[in-house]
Amino acid sequence: MSRLHFVAGNDIQLLHSGAQFFPALTAEIDQARHEIYLETYIFANDQTAVAVQAALIQAAARGVQVRVVLDWIGSDRQAAIDLTRLFNDAGVDCRCFNPWFKRGLARTHRKICVVDQQVAMVGGLNIIDDSIADDGSGIVLPSPRWDFAVRVTGPLVAHVHLEVDAQWRKLGRLNFRSRFALMRHLHADAKRGGKQITAAALVVRDNLRNRTTIQKAYLHALGTARTRAILVTPYFAPGRKFRRALISAASRGVDVVLLLGVGQFALQDAVAQSFYGRLLKAGVRIVEYRKTQLHAKVAVVDGDWATVGSSNFDGLSLFVNHEANIVIRDRDFAATLSHELEQGLADGVEIVAADVQKQAWYQHVWHGIAYLVYRGLMRIVTFGHYG
């Protein structure tokens, strides 16, 4: 999948944080008649997650085929094993992604649900209460986690369904011939949207067909941007190509704005801050979101290109993990998302060059060391692809 294949005729609804996402998710599960696929990085054990768990079990009890994929690391090793056993005992088919790193370092970081091949939900929200920090600390957040997903109906759902079904089958017992045939089928399906740039496209990242697809989608959007690009991520540590694309767009006069999450991981913050000086000098604006935990992975470019999904702007998301984004070409949707992002920018704190210049020398040294350590680790796990 070297380029995006857009599919027309979809209805796409933006869902803001858990207050909108979880009622929509459980409503779809409760209405399911035939089949549910759910794939997530984190499936927690809090009140919100237990409600989703109960809805899935009830669906299975009334004869719906329910298949759940959860990540072995994201859902906390033993908890993932216990939940898999609980689901399977209750009639919900459940598989852990990559237990004991048997398939390498990759994790499934995707957040996808498909119901009856009619409705798909894709975004950044894990199955966890958005008032609780998602790093295992159990800290109660000052405000609900800031995140987004989309609810999709229309022809694109078939593409999403094919991806989650393929993931499910790949986690089972497939011989080499079956895996190769599945890969060819996925490649053929990706082209069915044709060349018409209309509504929306599914863009995924894995370590076979789609190693750089999500990054290429961003690079193309930045490379053709004319007026404004707002990009949002909790973890900012992109490779050299991505950073150059941001600087190039800003140098052409595009208003490039980064809205970044901070305060969760000290090393991650230091790596991100190691880029601040050069980006600010090139005209890229940087806003730190400090109101609560920012978990959104979204962007709007020129008011007609938007994306919502699971991929961060860091080495793990862009070069290692399995990810899924929806790219939308629709001015009304972009305007809706832009409105939410403008509020996020208003709630943030803009960083200017003077803020970087007045930092103590040891802070600059720490940021540089953090970047060198991060780059070294990423070059190892990405076999040199991270720059």
TrEMBL record:
It holds the Pfam family PLDc_2. It is a peripheral membrane protein. It comes from the Bacteria. It catalyses: 2 a 1,2-diacyl-sn-glycero-3-phospho-(1'-sn-glycerol) = a cardiolipin + glycerol. CDD domains: PLDc_CLS_1, PLDc_ybhO_like_2. It is found in: Cell membrane. The keyword Nucleotide-binding does not apply. The active site is at 109, 111, 116, 295, 297, 302. Catalyzes the phosphatidyl group transfer from one phosphatidylglycerol molecule to another to form cardiolipin (CL) (diphosphatidylglycerol) and glycerol. This is Cardiolipin synthase B. It comes from Undibacterium hunanense. The gene is clsB.
